[in-house]
Amino acid sequence: MLYYLAMMLMVLSYAFRNSTPGAEINYNKLLKQERVITERCFGQLKRRFPILQYVCRVKLENVPKIIIACIVLHNVAKSLGYPDNKTQMKMKEILRMTNFLSAN
Q1: What pTM does this model have?
Q2: Considering its fold, how many domains does the chain have in total?
Q3: Could you list the residue range(s) of the whole structural domain that residue 54 is in?
Q4: Which of 8, 21, 52, 87 is the most buried (most CB within 10 A)?
């Protein structure tokens, strides 16, 4: 999925070679914004699934399956409201404990 996005952006960059400077500036702004979003998504995935951050010791043909599984699990976790990282998990646990203690 992300590979397709990268390929599409490369094709679009080729299409803008003979364009006006204003169009190039607008395109570069858009590309910069999309790149930041993509990098943030990869960062979230890497934090949640360390297997994506380090050397993966599996057969090469299994790597795309692992990446897709991580993306699906990440989306399920986001839709169920699970926090992205340990800090958020600790904060939620502290809030639960304070709510529990104040209720008793």
Answers
A1: 0.55
A2: 1
A3: 2-103
A4: 52
